[in-house]
């Protein structure tokens, strides 16, 4: 008999682009009207897909591919293409979706909101209660930066090479409520932090709690938000598999009475910066020592850390295979730079990604 495991689901954000020029196109509302289970975002040059809660990674992979195909078909209906890129390689002046909330965000946050055309991958894993969810949040903190490195897919920004593998992470950190967080210790303390943040009248609402991981407002899940949208569907499945195992490992550790790693938030910011800068192409900070180590070694440590949970969900072999494939192929950021090096054309970078979107 198969063991009962936590469900996992994925939300992915994509650019909408001209299939010839590679330029981002402000047609989000038209794409939504074309059909499919899609959602709009802050900017009209993007669209979001989501899967249903899944019990197996095979099921999740099927849904990720199906959601991408649905979004690509809706985009085609209005004469554009879907690009799994976390930032636009070509220059763009984003167009804000006409909603009162988004208009207020732009008024309050200026260029931070106006330039925020970035695409992420959010993974939801089921939890039994807010208390369990906060115990999980406190214990997954050290391993979130490696997830960013795995997903790195945004080396270019407005026509320039940023020097980063995930420049989306740098842009996202402009929000006052984004990034790593300190341990909460209890669901009551988590709620108190949100209430305090809202009472400052800096944020519009609870939806702007943009921490790397949080309790979902709408679902009984932990939502891990640190990753770029992945170029390949298999990379999205890999991120989701690692996140689910990480959540289970954290919940098990809490039941055993194991305290969270006391690492300071400032160190987590350093770890995330390094993951953003180099992806898997140089050293990351190893959460076991907080010293630099080769990226492949850190991924081995990640798998070792969550191996019992991966075995329980029958995912260990799949995750190891997906990691081996990723290390051989390279991240989306590496692929983008390779295409630019071969063609000298950022439009070709976009077209290359579009070809593989479904």
Q: Output mean pLDDT.
A: 96
Total domains? 1
Strand content: 5-15%
The major pleated sheet works out as: 7 strands, antiparallel
CATH architecture: 2-Layer Sandwich
Would you identify the regions where 5 or more consecutive residues have pLDDT less than 50?
none
- Radius of gyration equals 19 Å
- How many helices? The count is 14
Shape, per Cα inertia axes: globular
Helix content: 40-55%
Gap between N and C termini, in Å? 34 Å
CATH level 1 class label: Alpha Beta
CATH topology type: Creatine Kinase, Chain A, domain 2
N-to-C order of helices and strands? EHEEHEHHEHHEEHHEEHHEEHHHH
Structural class: alpha+beta
* Number of β-strand runs: 11
Function: ATP-dependent carboxylate-amine ligase which exhibits weak glutamate--cysteine ligase activity.
Enzyme class: ligase
Organism: Pseudonocardia adelaidensis
Keywords: ATP-binding, Ligase, Nucleotide-binding
Describe the structure.
The protein has one domain (96-355): Creatine Kinase, Chain A, domain 2, CATH 3.30.590. The longest helix has 23 residues, at 233-255. The protein is 47% helix and 14% strand. It has helices at residues 28-33, 57-77, 100-109, 111-114, 130-140, 144-151, 167-172, 187-199, 233-255, 265-278, 295-312, 316-329, 332-343, 346-355; strands spanning 8-17, 38-39, 46-50, 81-83, 120-126, 156-157, 160-161, 213-215, 221-228, 283-286, 291-294. It is globular, with a radius of gyration of 19 Å. Strands 1, 2, 3, 4, 5, 8 and 9 form a 7-stranded antiparallel sheet that branches. Strands 6-7 form a two-stranded antiparallel ribbon. It has 358 residues and is α+β, with helices and mostly antiparallel strands. Keywords: ATP-binding, Ligase, Nucleotide-binding. It comes from Pseudonocardia adelaidensis. ATP-dependent carboxylate-amine ligase which exhibits weak glutamate--cysteine ligase activity. Its EC number is 6.3.2.2. Belongs to the glutamate--cysteine ligase type 2 family. YbdK subfamily.
